[in-house]
Specification:
mainly beta; 14-stranded mixed beta sheet; two-stranded antiparallel ribbon; 18 strands; elongated
Length: about 210
């Protein structure tokens, strides 16, 4: 039986908060893409809890580029409010948030950067490429009951061969290969416990698509 999410539903951010730097291709198309995430929290003592999380991503990318052309894609998560309590359990904080995306197909990543974001705690958000994924890390901690916004991720790309399509997707295919992870600090019985949580998109839709002419 599925319990309620440790995080509330994510609403899609306004497209106006996105910014593409130095875009020289044809005008971009903003896309608000819903994501259905299958999640599992694994607290100590009690059994693992599964739940659904409805999310959304606002993406901006050019409709088309020429082979070998440099261009940018921006992906922006929505603001998130951490509940102060859930099903009788107090949510003290969340930390160690990691959001993973597959590296775009048919293009070479030449740079990546984060911009904006707010309320993400004392730790500094970072982004890095790991294998065939790009990983945004937000150390936190973020207190229960507060609202935060993950930074916008901008990718600098060079288009591949003509006829290809540059796509972006959230990574993840199972609890053991997730696209989103975080740790919640929750009082359980007579102690506080760190509850690791992993989520993956089921299915994983295309967030942005750019044709290579």
């Amino acid at each position: 039986m599925r319990s309620a999410s440790l995080l509330p539903r994510l609403s899609v951010t306004a497209v106006g908060c996105l910014a593409l730097v130095g875009l020289s291709a044809s005008p971009g198309v903003a896309a608000d893409t819903p994501l259905a995430l299958d999640c599992q929290a694994k607290p100590p003592v009690i059994s693992a809890q599964t739940f659904d999380l409805d999310a959304g991503v606002a993406a901006e990318a050019p409709e088309s580029v020429a082979s070998g052309e440099a261009f940018d894609i921006a992906l922006s998560p929505a603001p998130i409010t951490v509940p102060g309590s859930l099903n009788g359990y107090t949510i003290k904080s969340i930390k160690e948030i990691k959001l993973r995306a597959d590296l775009p197909s048919d293009a070479t990543v030449t740079g990546h950067r984060l911009s904006g974001g707010s309320g993400t705690g004392s730790g500094t958000p970072s982004v890095a490429i790991s294998g065939d994924q790009i990983v945004m890390t937000v150390p936190g901690p973020i207190n229960g009951g507060s609202t935060f916004t993950l930074p916008t991720l901008t990718l600098d790309l060079v288009a591949g061969d003509s006829g290809g399509t540059v796509t972006t997707r959230l990574a993840g295919s199972s609890y053991s290969s997730p696209g989103l992870t975080f740790t919640a600090r929750v009082p359980i019985l007579f102690f506080e416990a760190d509850v690791p949580t992993s989520c993956y998109p089921a299915p994983s839709p295309v967030l942005s698509s750019t044709r290579i002419d």
